[in-house]
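STRUCTURE REQUEST FORM
Protein name: DUF3332 domain-containing protein
Source organism: Vibrio coralliirubri
Requested output: structure tokens
Priority: standard
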Amino acid sequence: MKKIALKIVGLTVLASALTGCIGSNAVTGKVMKFNVEVVDNRYARAGVNFLLAPVYGITTAADYVVFNSLEFWTGKNPISGSPHVFDTKTDTHFKVNDELDPSLKEAPVGPISNNRTIETGEMIKIDENTIQMDIVYTSGETATLTGIKDGQNVTYYMDGQLVSQTTIAELEKIQGTEA
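Status: completed
Returned output:
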């Protein structure tokens, strides 16, 4: 019985993943964009492309199995934000939408990305160990990002919820000012 259940789960996962074979391939597109931006010569770009061949294999697999599947089921690519190619409005040979239940005309799951664009952000020094950024998004929503230094560690909170932790050394390394 356990083997049958395992096979059913495996087939369900496989079937879900195979829906992602078509999509915008956003991860591969980002690598392709990088490839073109590295150098301005077509022959050098071909050389970079050859060197990136293993990377293209990985990104294509990631697109097919993960990102294109998410794009299919949510109706939007989580990386590029573009709508799924199957939702493209075009002149078609067979018209079936008028005869279908409305639930079968759109992606069944809402987009999982939370891409909000910051309109303004104002930094305020609260005390020697605390800095706060008041954020206003283009949608009008607001948020507060707080960074609290405790010794050599820095903890970040978004609206009071822990979101990240780092060290002073890591921050200095990012800035290129290692101490």
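Reviewer notes: The radius of gyration is 23 Å. The mean pLDDT is 83.
Form closed.
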